[in-house]
Amino acid sequence: MPILLFRLNGVPDDEADEVRALLDAHRVEYYETQAGRWGISVAALWLRDDHAGDEETARRLIDDYQQERARNARADYAAQQQEGRVETLAGRFRREPLRLLAYAAVILVILYFTVAPFLHWR
Q1: Average pLDDT for consecutive 10-residue bins of the chain (122 residues)?
Q2: Are 46 and 30 a contacting pair, CB within 8 Å?
């Protein structure tokens, strides 16, 4: 039975390309399935059952890659914070106050209609 190595649903293209290149560089035999026309199938990289001995190597490679990618993302975020380039709620409110107020109004209306039947107003 094939072994699921890496799901591709919701994965950025650059990450998927890097994982494929990593597996190719280490000569891990895999195949890829697509999500299909309506996106309900599993888009993933799979290991054939006749190459099950490569599973440990492939998982280690992918785990190491993802840990390194997470470290890089955290470092990039920290650098952006230090430079003041990270968008905050306050910054967004200063830039687009009407949009945020409209969203808040819509949320309050939905909340009212959701909770009102259970409240006994007198």
Answers
A1: 93 97 95 92 92 91 98 96 91 94 97 90 65
A2: yes
